[in-house]
Design a protein that fits this description.
about 400 residues, mainly alpha, about 85% helix, about 0% strand
Length: about 400
Amino acid sequence: MRRTADPAWLFLATTAVLAAGTNAKWIVFMPRLVDDLQLEPYQLALLGTALELSGIIGEIPTGAVADLISRRLSIIASFVIMGPILALAGVFESFWLIALTQVGWGLAWTLHSGADVAWLTDELRSPDRVDRLLISRAKVQLAANALGVPIALALVATTTRTTAIVVAGASISAWGLVLAMTMPETGFERTARAAGAEFKRIVGVGTRLTARTRPLRLLAISSLFYGLGSGVVDHLDLARLVEVGIPSDVDEVFLYGALALVQAAAGIVLIRLIERRLIDVPAARVLSLLMLLAGVAIAVTAGANVGWAIFVGLVMQEALRMTAEPFITMIANSHSESDVRATMLSFMSQAYAGGEILSGVFLGVVASVAGIGTAFAIGAIIVVGSSLISSRI
């Protein structure tokens, strides 16, 4: 007999495992791509594009399936599938095989994206409590990101970079099995209508709701531009540091780990400040401010010619981005209808992913031709534009 856990606790614990595992992987994976495999900037950008493209293709179908069949099963499947794919990304050396793992990982991620918040909302049936948990999730995610740093460094110090990535993947799959044994689903109501017709209805309702509801429409456009501008940082942050120059005796894994650790700490401090000072401010106004400051941070990273200034810019940009995520989810969740909630949240993820795809194609080429700093400068301008759009929500 399956023993169920408290939904709120399980939601935060799942966030912690996924954040720690994926961050431990990225801390080792990016230096492996830049240092061991010596990929070019456009190749790094293409890997990010492959990841986001698979996400944008999968978000709506998987969101609709979660709304139609089971959010619980969708989340469990995501973890079970994601782990082995993540591990293979650390084993393969061929650029195209690594790109294939990014496609698989992106598709597996969409099974979880949106379905988790929709599941939590149905289980708790308390919008105010869900909003508080979304803020708590952001703090847990940042703390778990920080925890992933010593885990990754310890694994690299005692084994190899490949082994460290494989262990991170295995931990994510193992959590999927834990979810299978403990995750409840009491608030979700399956439809009695034919699956194919209901799938089309869910996607159609979600599309019309986004198009006709001003806050959702502006949020989707803002998320698209935010992904376009900030995507260059996601793909080329370590390459930007290497471009300026780092001491030859500094291991890129330790440098990237230190960056992730400071980013997590800065994000936790930022969220605490927002909780205390901006708790009664509308979510859209907070989101607009965070996006504006992120644009400034990217501009600093673009214009600086010393490593420490770029480091600070990267820290602030990531802390601001992580802090902005729960506010995007709050706005989307508050304007969604229950039976299409996972689909609606997937729409917003799809908008951001679409921006990152354009970033990988456009700004990746700019980085290869005119330099990474120029690509960052263009990204900063675009992010400021996303702030102006979100201010109208």
